């Protein structure tokens, strides 16, 4: 049989058809129910509704014969199994999606992700993270937690087609699949049904939200508007050598070049944190140069905290880029090679701060890099705050300035979380560290005093035991560096004329075995002889209980680990174990510190001699500023010497303290540049855990008056509101402003306003003209005041020399002081007295002599000390020159050195530091150039010291002669006398107005000039005044030969190196106080007692004017003078509280209720009575009365003297108590007070406004007949 044809609706057709009809149907019987429950049967023809009588009969069709179901074939079974598997997968997928929706991240976090599908396809490798608020404000679409929604839609449509095709084979399983499909792909119940026309659209996933596109612009246009404007790419080719390029590619920062440059292009401020050795200092300027940031004659500026780093980095970058020093230059305080071709400029932070003062917006710079920001120096913090504001101002002018802050271990929170500094947190880019690891080893015991000796022993063990590699040792000061260098050179001498042999480099195991045998023989030899014990080599404090047993146990452990690199204990713990010379292991030892000569500093970068190992003994200057090649081992003593300042007293002291953890990590980072390194820390891990994480910023540890003055000169009045990364303390800012007000650099706040206004004005004191003049000099405010006051009587060249010598520290070599542990073990190290030591180098303050190799060296050092002492006495002179004290010694030393040509031989013979003398020479030239602008400012009369002739120290007919009383040289004579290099540098620094130039043949000052210089020094160092202890204080022995200062309770002494040590004058001013076991004054000069009220009125409290002698008129000043007694007291050194008024005399004063009589003391530590001197008459009504009297007498204007005989009453009537009874006295006094005319200058200013001023009041004192003559001659000015 053939295949049956499939018919349409075959099942319906198989039903039986109804039977044939046999006539019309019978009407159905009707039965009605009546109200009385009766029934009525029959047919009612009148009823329209005829109901059927019985149910219609239907005939059933015969049942069809059931066909037997065929068994499923193998193909059909596989198809059904595939359908079941797909349904099971849908169910599992629905469960998985439900679980994922429970743990799905929030939409705000999803907006912060960036797809990785665009990496390497031209997209950005670096994308700045946006805030969730910024993303929400942009109205972006919500991102689904799962990607590939379009793939899901296509897959669902394919499944629907398969289900339709297989509906025949399995229709009974379709209802079971509906819940799974609804959970997996159907629309949620809360969504409205789709419109009829959207039947073919895919359902919207639950994680997506429909956001209508803006109708204004199509998607392509919207994306084009969101992109920044395209800029042409700039690339500056650099021709590097293949060797340099190969070494450069090894640095980790090269892999971050694109990330850094994209961040710089998109943000005004970027922070780059890279470990030591990552190459950020040398490579980031090259990145910027190649990117074209210096193509339009702009400069890439790089600031370094130290001069050594600025010079070294400029040379290194120029060598890597194969460019000349004219393109990659440096500029430090005294020198530089910057030209018009300079494109990369390395400089110290102070140099950039001076450039900001000249031009605030820095238009020459396009990028400024602040390097080594983790050191947090004062100028670094100031620069970061200023540049953060400069970048905003430049951005508004469409001249963007990029700021990069680079550091190794930076406290990033001080910058990123400081809203006052950066409104938008800058991005932080972290660069990977060096390629080779550094193993850090801690000591089991922590030496407290003899850490220098521990460093020596550790270096000896490293040199004898470990493989080749340079050694870097960190110590605290210059003295310790030289002491350790001497010991190492003695222990491992280098044969200078012996040719290197290859046999000298033997196996380390054989050397160790030979060394052990020699040590064993040495111990046996020592056992037969009694040791010589010196008590000076032992500590005074007794050893703790159980220390001997503990040390014995540690020694046993060290012997067990004899060959380990961790401890390196070879049994040479004896006092002389490491001092025996061993010429078979030569060691090339070099010192390194900031005061070392540049040519000697450069030796550490050169390879050591063949057959030797390099060992550099350095201070913390090698911590971050320099990278010494070839260093594999680092020995860290864990200590650092810092200068501490007392904000209240100004006393400075050097203290050796523990370093911070960040500094310790920096020191460890010096190792492992070329191979795995080791760092040996001479302290335990427990001690390291107690270190501070970061060192405190320098701005919190030093006075800030110089910074306050510089910021005031930049028109930053409220310094307290400046965005410091770490603000200084309020006490330091208050002390700085008080000092500047006392120096006359700032205007004193008013005293008659409301309390709130007084509080505001106290923090916004404007700068004065004197302050702007002081700000032009690159020295401290006290020294700048001295320079600003020295333009009289030819004193400016001498003042410049003195200030330059006071600014440069350590002018003389320290021939009788050495560091702790400098003497080798077993050598006699006698103590020096505290007077000779000066500054202690150790924690305990013990200072020892320089260890001499022989008696000849001791004799030579003794002869040099005697020579220096003799030269100091010669330079100080006698008489008036000796009263200038130590400053005269500085002046004589500089003058003699310049006269001799400033040769190294002269400096060596007279105990002078050659580098310090060269710095003084450069600073003299710099101050001379600044003096051309500074001396042009006319100083206010209240700030400048009066001429010496007014105080009775100088004859009135003295002529204004040249330097030292000699006629001033001409330009030709000066050129012939100058050396060629000095002539080329400083001939342009001449000041034609003042006749100022750097004179290498400067003559000594005359006696009158010495007096002027003493007054100038007193005016600048007024807050550093000290008085010798009086007889009532000598009852206590501690006050013998001591002095008292206003802010210290303890006695202070003149330093023994001072030429005034044996003179003991009554009043002195000092440069600084240094604290060791005692407090010593350095830079001492004598002061006459009668100068104090005249030169330092702001530090004195004055009594009422004396009647005898009576007040007098000064024709030169044009004002009234009087004699007043005064008291120099502590209160004058502090600003009064808000609303506090003084007692007259100008400047800060104390409360008026204090007793001011000569014999009484004001409350405080000191109250020194001063003799009555002639000073300006204090402001008040009495001043107007006295000025009216001398005006009537004709002393003010000589034209009025002819009318003195015609007066109706005596001019002294103005001073009588009954003067108010006469109208003429009252009218004249009222007119003078109205115009504040209490001096000649004020009266002349009033006449310039109104020529008829005071005419009527003056005529009341004369008869009517004289009025016509007075009116003709009025006003009686000298020019009429």
Uncertain runs are: 125-147, 164-225, 497-509, 525-577, 817-853, 935-994, 1132-1164
Percent of residues in helices comes to 25-40%
| Oligomer kind | single chain
What structural class results from the helix and strand content?
A: alpha/beta
Q: How much of the sequence is in beta strands?
A: 5-15%
**What Rg, in angstroms, do the CA atoms define?**
47 Å
Count of extended strands: 28
Give the N-to-C terminal Cα separation.
Answer: 153 Å
Largest beta-sheet characterization: 7 strands, parallel
Pfam families: DEAD, DHX37_C, HA2_C, Helicase_C, OB_NTP_bind, WHD_HA2
Keywords: ATP-binding, Helicase, Hydrolase, Nucleotide-binding
GO molecular function: ATP binding; helicase activity; hydrolase activity; RNA binding
Protein name: ATP-dependent RNA helicase DHX37
Summarize the structure.
The protein has 1280 residues and is an alpha/beta fold. Among the domains are: 242-431, 3-Layer(aba) Sandwich (Rossmann fold); 436-495 and 561-695, Rossmann fold; 699-767; 770-815 and 850-1020, no CATH class; 1181-1272, no CATH class. The protein is built from 43 helices and 28 strands.
Describe the structure in your own words.
- By secondary structure, the chain is of the alpha/beta class.
- Among the domains are: 242-431, Rossmann fold, CATH 3.40.50; 436-495 and 561-695, Rossmann fold (3-Layer(aba) Sandwich); 699-767; 770-815 and 850-1020, no CATH class; 1181-1272, no CATH class.
- The chain is built from 43 helices and 28 strands.
- The protein has a seven-stranded parallel β-sheet with strand order 5-6-4-7-8-3-9, sandwiched between helices. A six-stranded parallel β-sheet has the order 10-17-14-11-13-12, with helices on both faces.
- A hairpin with a 3-residue loop joins strand 22 (1072-1075) and strand 23.
- The longest helix is centred in the N-terminal third of the chain and has 29 residues, at 74-102.
- The chain is extended and about 165 Å long.
- The N and C termini lie far apart (153 Å).
- This is ATP-dependent RNA helicase DHX37.
- Residues 498-513 have a biased composition (Basic and acidic residues).
């Amino acid at each position: 049989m053939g295949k049956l044809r499939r018919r349409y609706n075959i099942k319906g057709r198989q039903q039986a058809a109804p039977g044939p009809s046999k006539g019309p149907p019978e009407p159905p019987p009707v039965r009605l129910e009546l109200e009385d429950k009766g029934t009525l049967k029959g047919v009612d023809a009148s009823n329209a509704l005829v109901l059927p009588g019985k149910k219609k009969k239907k005939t059933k069709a015969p049942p069809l014969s059931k066909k037997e179901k065929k068994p499923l074939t193998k193909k059909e079974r596989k198809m059904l199994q595939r359908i079941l598997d797909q349904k099971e997968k849908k169910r599992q997928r629905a469960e998985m999606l439900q679980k994922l929706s429970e743990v799905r991240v929030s939409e705000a976090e999803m907006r912060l992700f960036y797809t990785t599908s665009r990496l390497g396809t031209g997209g950005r490798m670096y994308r700045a993270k946006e805030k969730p608020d910024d993303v929400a404000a942009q109205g972006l679409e919500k991102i689904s937690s799962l990607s590939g929604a379009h793939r899901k839609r296509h897959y669902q449509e394919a499944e629907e087609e398969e289900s339709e095709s297989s509906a025949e084979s399995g229709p009974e399983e379709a209802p079971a699949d509906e819940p799974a499909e609804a959970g997996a792909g159907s629309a949620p119940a809360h969504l409205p049904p789709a419109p009829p026309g959207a039947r073919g659209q895919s359902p919207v996933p639950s994680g997506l939200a429909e956001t209508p596109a803006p109708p204004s612009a199509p998607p392509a246009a919207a994306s084009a508007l969101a992109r920044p404007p395209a800029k042409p790419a700039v690339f500056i080719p650099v021709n590097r050598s293949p060797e340099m390029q190969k070494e450069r590619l090894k640095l980790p920062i090269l892999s971050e070049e694109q990330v850094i440059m994209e961040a710089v292009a998109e943000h005004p401020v970027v922070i780059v944190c890279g470990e030591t050795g990552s190459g950020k200092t040398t490579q980031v300027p090259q990145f910027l140069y190649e990117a074209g940031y210096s193509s339009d004659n702009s400069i890439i500026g790089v600031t370094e905290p130290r001069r050594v780093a600025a010079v070294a980095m400029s040379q290194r970058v120029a060598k890597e880029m194969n460019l000349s020093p004219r393109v990659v230059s440096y500029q430090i305080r005294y020198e530089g090679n910057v030209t018009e071709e300079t494109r990369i400029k390395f400089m110290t932070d102070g140099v950039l701060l001076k450039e900001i003062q000249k031009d605030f917006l820095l238009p020459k710079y396009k990028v400024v890099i602040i390097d080594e920001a983790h050191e947090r120096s004062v100028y670094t913090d100031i620069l970061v705050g200023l540049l953060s504001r400069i970048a905003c101002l430049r951005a508004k002018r469409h001249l963007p300035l990029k700021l990069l802050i680079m550091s190794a271990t930076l406290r990033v929170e001080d910058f990123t979380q400081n809203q006052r500094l950066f409104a938008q947190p800058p991005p932080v880019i972290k660069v990977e560290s060096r390629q080779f690891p550094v193993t850090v080893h801690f000591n089991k015991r922590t030496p407290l005093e003899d850490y220098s000796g521990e460093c020596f022993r550790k270096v000896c063990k490293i040199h004898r035991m470990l493989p080749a590699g340079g050694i870097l040792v960190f110590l605290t000061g210059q003295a310790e560096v030289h002491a350790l260098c001497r010991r190492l050179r003695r222990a491992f001498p280098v044969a200078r004329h012996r040719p290197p042999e290859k046999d000298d480099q033997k196996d380390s195991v054989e050397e160790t075995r030979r060394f052990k045998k020699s040590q064993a023989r040495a111990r046996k030899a020592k056992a037969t002889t009694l040791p010589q014990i010196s008590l000076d080599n032992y500590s005074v404090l007794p050893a703790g209980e159980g220390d001997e047993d503990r040390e014995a146990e540690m020694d046993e452990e060290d012997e067990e680990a004899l060959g380990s690199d961790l401890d390196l204990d070879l049994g040479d713990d004896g006092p002389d174990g490491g001092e025996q010379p061993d010429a078979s292991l030569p060691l090339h030892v070099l010192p390194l510190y900031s005061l070392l000569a540049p040519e000697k500093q450069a030796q550490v970068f050169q390879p050591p001699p063949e057959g030797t190992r390099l060992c550099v003994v350095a201070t913390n200057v090698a911590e971050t500023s320099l990278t010494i090649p070839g260093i594999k081992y680092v020995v860290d003593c864990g200590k650092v010497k810092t200068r501490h300042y007392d904000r209240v007293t100004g006393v400075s002291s050097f203290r050796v303290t523990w370093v911070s953890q960040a500094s310790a990590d920096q020191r460890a980072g010096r190792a492992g540049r070329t191979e795995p390194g080791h760092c040996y820390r001479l302290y335990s891990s427990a001690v390291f855990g107690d270190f501070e994480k970061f060192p405190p910023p320098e701005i919190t540890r030093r006075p800030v008056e110089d910074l306050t003055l510089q910021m005031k000169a930049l028109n930053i009045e409220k310094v307290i509101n400046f965005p410091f990364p770490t603000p200084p303390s309020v006490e330091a800012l208050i002390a700085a402003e008080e000092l500047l007000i006392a120096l006359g650099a700032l205007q004193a706040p008013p005293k008659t306003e409301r309390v709130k206004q007084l509080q505001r004005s106290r923090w916004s004191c404007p700068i004065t003209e004197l302050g702007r003049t002081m700000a032009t000099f690159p020295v401290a405010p006290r020294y700048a005041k001295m320079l600003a006051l020295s333009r009289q009587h030819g004193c400016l060249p001498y003042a410049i020399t003195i200030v330059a010598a006071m600014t440069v520290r350590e002018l003389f070599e320290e021939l009788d002081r050495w560091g702790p542990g400098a003497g080798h073990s077993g050598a006699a190290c006698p103590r020096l007295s505290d007077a000779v030591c000066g500054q202690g180098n150790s924690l305990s303050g013990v200072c020892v002599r320089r260890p001499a190799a022989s008696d000849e060296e001791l004799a030579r050092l003794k002869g040099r000390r005697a020579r220096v002492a003799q030269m100091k006495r010669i330079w100080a002179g006698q008489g008036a020159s000796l009263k200038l004290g130590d400053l005269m010694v500085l002046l004589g030393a500089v003058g003699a050195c310049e006269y001799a040509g400033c040769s190294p031989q002269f400096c060596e013979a007279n105990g002078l530091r050659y580098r310090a003398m060269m710095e003084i020479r450069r600073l003299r030239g710099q101050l001379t150039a600044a003096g051309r602008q500074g001396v042009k400012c006319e100083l206010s009369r209240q700030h400048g010291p009066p001429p010496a002739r007014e105080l009775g120290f100088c004859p009135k007919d003295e002529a204004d002669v040249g330097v030292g009383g000699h006629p001033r040289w001409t330009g030709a004579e000066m050129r012939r006398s100058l050396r060629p290099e000095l002539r080329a540098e400083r001939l342009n620094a001449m000041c034609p107005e003042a006749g100022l130039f750097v004179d290498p043949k400067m003559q000594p000052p005359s006696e009158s000039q010495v007096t002027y210089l003493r007054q100038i020094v007193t005016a600048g160092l007024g807050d550093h005044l000290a008085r010798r202890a009086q007889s009532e204080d000598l009852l206590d022995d501690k006050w013998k030969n001591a002095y008292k200062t206003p802010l210290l309770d303890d006695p202070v002494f003149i330093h023994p190196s001072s030429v005034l040590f044996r003179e003991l004058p009554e009043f002195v001013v000092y440069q600084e106080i240094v604290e060791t076991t005692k407090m010593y004054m350095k830079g001492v000069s004598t002061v006459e007692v009668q100068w104090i009220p005249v030169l330092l009125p702001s530090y004195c409290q004055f009594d009422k004017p004396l009647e005898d002698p009576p007040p007098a008129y000064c024709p030169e000043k044009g004002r009234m003078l009087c004699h007043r007694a005064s008291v120099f007291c502590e209160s004058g050194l502090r600003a009064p509280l808000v609303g506090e008024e003084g007692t007259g005399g100008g400047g800060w004063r104390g409360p008026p209720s204090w007793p001011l009589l000569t014999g009484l003391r004001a409350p405080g530590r000191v109250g020194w009575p001063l003799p009555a001197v002639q000073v300006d008459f204090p402001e008040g009504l009495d001043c107007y009365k006295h000025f009216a009297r001398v005006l009537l007498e004709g002393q003010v204007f000589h034209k009025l003297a002819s009318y003195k005989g015609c007066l109706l009453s005596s001019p002294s009537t103005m001073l009588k108590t009954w003067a108010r009874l006469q109208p003429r006295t009252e009218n004249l006094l009222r007119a003078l007070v109205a115009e504040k005319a209490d001096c000649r200058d004020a009266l002349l200013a009033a006449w310039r406004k109104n020529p008829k001023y005071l005419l009527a009041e003056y005529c009341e004192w004369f008869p009517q007949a004289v009025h016509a003559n007075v009116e003709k001659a009025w006003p009686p000015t000298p020019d009429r």
